[in-house]
Amino acid sequence: MKRERHSIIILVLSVIVLFCTLQPSIAHGKTVTLEEAIKIAIQNNPAIKEAEAKVRQAGGDLQTAKAGLVPKLRLESSYVRINEERAIPVMAFQNGTPVELFSIPLALEDTFSLAVKLEWLIWGGGKVRATIKALEHGLRVAQANLEATKNNVIHETEKAYYSVLKAKAYMKLMEDMVNLLEAHQNRVKKLYERGMVPKSDLLRIGVELSNTRLSYFKAQNAFKLAKASLKTTLGIEEELEPEEVSFKPKFELQDLSFYLQIAKNKRAELLAIQRAVAQAESYIKAATGNLKPSYIFSAKYEKTDSSFPPQEENWNIALAIQWNLFDGGEAKGNIEKAKGIKDELLATYKKVEDNISLGVENAYLNLRSALERLEVAEKEVESAKVDYEMMLKRYNAQVASIIDVLDAQTALKEARTHLIDALYDVWISWSDLRYNCGYEVMKYEK
Predict the structure, then answer these.
(1) Residue 155 sits in the same domain as residue 197
(2) How far, in Å, CA of 401 to CA of 198, rounded?
(3) What does the alpha-carbon distance between residue 28 and residue 41 come to, in Å, rounded to a whole number?
(4) For the segment 365-374, what is each residue's pLDDT rounded down to a tens digit?
(5) Mean pLDDT calculated for residue range 188-207
(6) Is residue 344 classed as helix, strand or coil in its secondary structure?
(7) Is residue 13 in some structural domain?
(8) What residues contact residue 313 under an 8 Å CB cut-off, 6+ apart?
(9) Which residues, in sequence order, are bridge partners of residue 73?
(10) In what order do the strands lie in the sheet with 294-305?
């Protein structure tokens, strides 16, 4: 009896080893946590780099506009040479004959000039200050868009990360099912050789094993595809292995109104539109400033001479007024354009706000449903395990059919599938909820 049992064990191990050697190998790379994967994605993602470049551009535009309020001090120097000196002669008549008394020079043959000039826009009708205010809002728009882009990258990374873990769990499930069926096939074969079960039992278990192996191959392929998708999301070529998350997520779910309020106040897309509306209002003021006069102060100190360094000094101070009395309707057109942009943004804000609220509610309801399913699935797995083990014993005692055993095995597989679905639906729904809230809700994660 011991020899027979030993032979069965060796046979089972041999089949498992042979089966494993025939399977495509699954590459295992460096293990990374979710936080590490997110850092890699943020560092490599081109959309984030593009958004960061736009922030720098907006900052440069703002700095350029602020320069309009500061006096400009300029140093000027020149050298001019003409073919001959030019002068106006001053004449007098002596005895009826014109005589040149002296001449007034108009242009020296060689002229050196060195000057310092100051210009200052004292008041530009409010246009410059309004433009600066608009560009300040524009910088905040670019910063909010950068934050929104990061949120999108984090969300896509988390989904890809959990998808790999989910595919891996499916693959492990199908591998376990193959091992169970192989072991059971060996038992059925022994019983058949003793004449205790019909050949149909052996054929049924063989068909079921072949189908399960095919499912295992598909699960392996799905796992590889999920890992490839994660690499693409992270923007790397290196093979990475996600670290397993804790089996039961630990956080306290608040009321739906709590998350809706956070999304309304903190979602970067909404903040960007709010700041864009303020920017449009500032551009309206800037366009209105074109209808008002501008006051410009200037001063110049200059030295000119026919030799260098020049010695002859002169200076002047001026206050100028510029006022476009008629611009053909240009200013009015710019005002109407800015107002139209503002109205469009207000309409867009309402649409985006509704979509975000819908996204929050969907994620919230999906999360609650997944949490409830997770509790049920845990109990379902325990019951299915007990039922399978009991049915296996009954079959060995010849008080249950092979169909009963296969049905119990199928029920166990479905129960474990439900558990995997529920577990990763919890994680993905929690990620969806945090994404729709702008990730501010992470503060309240337990």
Answers:
(1) yes
(2) 10
(3) 20
(4) 999 999 999 9
(5) 88
(6) helix
(7) no
(8) 301, 302, 303
(9) 118
(10) 72-81, 110-123, 294-305, 312-322
